[in-house]
């Protein structure tokens, strides 16, 4: 499974990259706003700064909602760096724009996917990734994991080539459930990366190893 980080915070992206497990980045307008990034020039510069940290696959979200404007904005975003993946919403003009960019060999990520039908449509349009939002479905008492399973079955049935990018991941179990289903990508906040590290038996086991090591070495030093 590829690990993307879901943030526009440069320090968090660097931290995940330094961990040596990062395959890409997803951002969205809310995450950019959280970092106080406003104005097209600053937005472009911020995407470039993200591209300079990671090896590839930086999702930059198109704000426009009409086909013509989406194409113009997408062309500008794609010109920032070859690492850019255009992120487009699951709306009619978004699907048309995905087809346009797909025909041009520009990678796309169709966002705000909440049903298997939406995922199938985006895949048919040539999306590189579809982003089903697990946490937001769970928030309204619908199963995000069940949606991933449905999309995986459909994509496998037809060998569609579009990758499932599990988004709106809130905790490690979300990520692991998606991994068990064979979803190709997850995008998570840094917190989830760090939570994956944790197990109380690891902590107590390491403490015991280090205590035993220190004890025997202190005895040897005393005898010398
Ligand atoms: C996906 O690319 C989105 O940026 C993101 O995962 C949304 O997550 P949220 O529901 O935690 O805002």
Keyword list:
globular; alpha/beta; 224 residues; 8-stranded parallel β-barrel; 8 strands; TIM Barrel; TAL/FSA; binds erythose-4-phosphate
Overview of this structure, please?
The structure is a single chain. With 224 residues, the chain is an alpha/beta fold. The chain has a single domain (2-198), classed as TIM Barrel. Helices cover 56% and strands 16% of the residues. Strand 7, helix 9 and strand 8 (185-188) form a beta-alpha-beta unit. The longest helix has 24 residues, at 200-223. The termini are far apart. It binds erythose-4-phosphate. Residues 6, 26, 28, 111, 131, 133, 135-136, 167-168, 187 line the site of erythose-4-phosphate.
Short description:
By secondary structure, the chain is α/β, with parallel strands linked by helices.
Give the topology:
Layout: E1 2-6, H1 10-18, E2 24-26, H2 29-34, H3 40-53, E3 58-61, H4 67-78, E4 84-89, H5 92-103, E5 108-113, H6 116-124, E6 129-132, H7 134-139, H8 144-158, E7 163-166, H9 172-181, E8 185-188, H10 190-197, H11 200-223
Parallel strand pairs: 1-2, 1-8, 2-3, 3-4, 4-5, 5-6, 6-7, 7-8
The protein binds erythose-4-phosphate.
The CATH class designation is Alpha Beta
Shape category: globular
Task: Write down the domain tally.
Answer: 1
Low-confidence stretches: none
Q: Would you list the SSEs in sequence order as H and E?
A: EHEHHEHEHEHEHHEHEHH
The helix content is 55-70%
Summarize the main sheet: 8 strands, parallel, barrel
């Amino acid at each position: 499974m590829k690990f993307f980080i879901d943030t526009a915070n440069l320090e968090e992206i660097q931290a995940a990259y330094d961990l040596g497990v990062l395959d890409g980045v997803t951002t969205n307008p809310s995450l950019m706003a959280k970092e106080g990034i406003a104005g097209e020039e600053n937005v472009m510069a911020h995407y470039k700064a993200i591209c300079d940290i990671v090896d590839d696959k930086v999702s930059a979200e198109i704000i426009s909602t009409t086909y013509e404007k989406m194409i113009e904005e997408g062309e500008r975003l794609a010109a920032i760096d070859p690492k850019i993946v255009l992120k487009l919403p699951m709306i009619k003009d978004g699907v048309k724009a995905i087809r346009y960019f797909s025909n041009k060999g520009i990678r796309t990520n169709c966002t705000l996917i909440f049903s298997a039908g939406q995922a199938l449509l985006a895949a048919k349009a040539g999306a590189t990734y579809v982003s089903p939002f697990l946490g937001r479905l769970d928030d309204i008492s619908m199963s995000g994991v069940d949606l991933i399973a449905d999309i995986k079955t459909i994509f496998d049935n037809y060998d569609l080539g579009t990758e499932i990018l599990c988004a709106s991941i809130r905790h490690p179990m979300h990520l692991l459930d998606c991994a068990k289903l064979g979803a190709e990508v997850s995008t998570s906040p840094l917190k989830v990366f760090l939570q994956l590290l944790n197990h109380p038996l690891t902590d107590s086991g390491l403490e015991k190893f280090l205590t035993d090591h220190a004890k025997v070495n202190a005895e040897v030093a005393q005898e010398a």
